[in-house]
Design a protein that fits this description.
Layout (H helix, E strand, L loop, with lengths): L5 H5 L17 H7 L9 E8 L6 E2 L7 E4 L3 H11 L3 E6 L17 H12 L4 E6 L13 E2 L2 E2 L1 H18 L3 E4 L6 H11 L6 E8 L6 H7 L19 H12 L4 E5 L5 H10 L4 E5 L1 H12 L5 H15 L3 E4 L2 H11 L1
Parallel strand pairs: 1-3, 1-4, 1-12, 4-5, 5-8, 8-9, 9-10, 10-11, 11-12
Antiparallel strand pairs: 2-3, 6-7
The structure holds ligand PBG.
């Protein structure tokens, strides 16, 4: 026994702590060994903006690293994504023409059907999900058909059904209605089944908040509403019980997967939904969340990789099976660097 100083001799004996959580935090190997959550590439869905015309990808100024790709470019982009380890993509079309109803959204030769066919040919294993909405195709920029200044629900559901059928006919695996119309999942399911596409899955944007974080996306898509806002159909961020009702309705209408968005402001909803619903849960880390992190990283305020990995781990920990994120290719690159 080493000699103890007089002061130490007077002090009470140190307590023995039975539990020391730091034991398993001592090294990276130990931390990785007991980590509860993984953000594997198979969990990530990469959004792609597809535009009409040809030429090179057009950068989206507010979203560094994101571009609007002409359909022609997808034959090279899709196999590249696959080689990088990306397993699924979510397609957004920029309309060739806009009218009051958004009819270009359901044209069989529209940008999204053409993109689906191009990706299918070039990268047959990629899971293809498509956004089903009208806002990039309507002159007024709202997600549906207007009547007296308000979006008419049932007429819009009818149009969304046509869009879903056009996407399914081109070969989409999953269609994702994002217009936040009541009954849109049942409407799509009926339209798909009626057209012979019973095998096409529906990913419901169930809890889509009227959010300030969609701004960069609307710049990319040219889909900002010309007048008013989307609060008449998208969800109020203050409501959680209503979010559960949205998800329960979509599940009852036959949704194959349920989505919440924006992800970062919905972690509580993911956790609750995880307890209630057996369906795969998807979280969308939206354009504003991406742009904020990129901007903060560019200013040296946060370290990009660490900050992004932290948000993705938190979204997975909250209960998401899949995460739609514009960072998917960055994550793929970081995973390669580790190997
Ligand atoms: C279409 C749609 C939007 C987003 C996904 N689908 C825009 C909106 O509702 O205004 C937002 C995605 C993002 O911000 O990354 N309705």
């Amino acid at each position: 026994m080493p000699a103890r100083s007089a002061a130490a001799a007077r002090a009470p004996a140190p307590r023995t702590l039975p539990v020391r959580l730091r034991r398993l935090r001592r090294s990276r190997a130990l931390r990785d060994w007991v980590a509860e959550t993984d953000v594997g590439l198979r969990r990530l869905v990469y959004p792609i903006f597809v535009r009409p015309g040809s030429g090179s990808p057009e950068p989206v100024p507010s979203m560094p690293g994101v571009a609007r790709h002409p359909v022609r470019a997808l034959a090279t982009l899709a196999p590249r994504l696959e080689a990088e380890g990306i397993r699924s993509v979510l397609l957004f079309g920029v309309g060739r023409t806009k009218d009051d109803e958004g009819s270009d959204a359901w044209a069989p030769d529209g940008v999204v059907p053409e993109a689906i066919r191009a990706i299918r040919r070039a990268a047959p294993e990629l899971v293809i999900v498509t956004d089903v909405c009208l806002c990039a195709y309507t002159r007024h920029g709202h997600c549906g058909v207007l009547h007296d200044g308000a979006v008419e629900n049932d007429a819009t559901v009818d149009r969304l059904g046509r869009v879903a059928v056009a996407h399914a006919a081109a070969g989409a695996d999953v269609v994702a209605p994002s217009a936040m119309m009541d009954g849109q999942v049942a409407g799509l399911r009926d339209a798909l089944d009626g057209a012979g596409f019973a095998s096409t899955a529906v990913l419901a944007y169930s809890t889509k908040h009227a959010s300030a974080f969609y701004g960069p996306f609307r710049e990319a898509e040219g889909s900002a509403p010309a007048t008013g806002d989307r609060r008449g159909y998208q969800m109020d961020v203050r409501n959680a019980r209503e979010a559960i009702r949205e998800m329960a309705l979509d599940a009852a209408e036959g949704a194959d997967l349920l989505m919440v968005k924006p992800a970062g402001t919905s972690l509580d909803l993911l956790a609750r939904a995880r307890e209630i619903f057996p369906q795969p849960l998807v979280a969308y880390q939206v354009s504003g969340e991406y742009a904020m992190l990129k901007a903060a990283a560019a200013q040296g305020v946060v370290e990009e990789r660490a900050a992004v990995e932290e948000t993705l781990a938190a979204i997975r920990r909250a209960g998401a099976d899949l995460i739609v994120t514009y960072f998917a290719r960055d994550v793929a690159r970081w995973r390669r660097e580790v190997a």
